[in-house]
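[09:14] KT: can someone run the structure on this one? pasting the chain below
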Amino acid sequence: MYVVALALLSACVVADDVTYLQYNGDDQSVSVDVGSDTRYVLDDDGVTEVPEAVSVVLTSSTGAVEIGSGTVSPSAGPIGTIHRVSVEISEAYAEDIDRVTVRTDSGDRGEDEYDLERDSAGEGYWVFELESQGEDGEQRTDTLTFLLYEEVASEE
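[09:31] RB: done, structure tokens below
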């Protein structure tokens, strides 16, 4: 019984006197190559392309229900690359999500967490632009984990 209560408490976040309960699973992540020289790839015909985006399916806390997707574009680039981090929540669940964050794990550089902004025209669309940081010549693979939250009614 105590283990269940502890697990539920650890999935809650308090921000600005509002309590949020995590809505999705903890392991919904993508990898981004930072410091890579592959940001621009020159095709045979001279056309420059940006590496493809990388995406992950976002599911409910048990993993039983697909509720949306998280995407980072581009998936690689040199230090200073601007990566567009976006989340699209299915219409059936968009109303349930009140906060979206992305947690970055940059190895020795540490971890950080950023709030995505809800699109003004679409309740299920969230976005954030993240600039990769590092020293000249540094290369690493960062892990970006998507976290979805619903606001929990507070007792007063």
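[09:33] KT: thanks! The longest helix spans residues 2-10.
[09:34] RB: yep, looked fine to me
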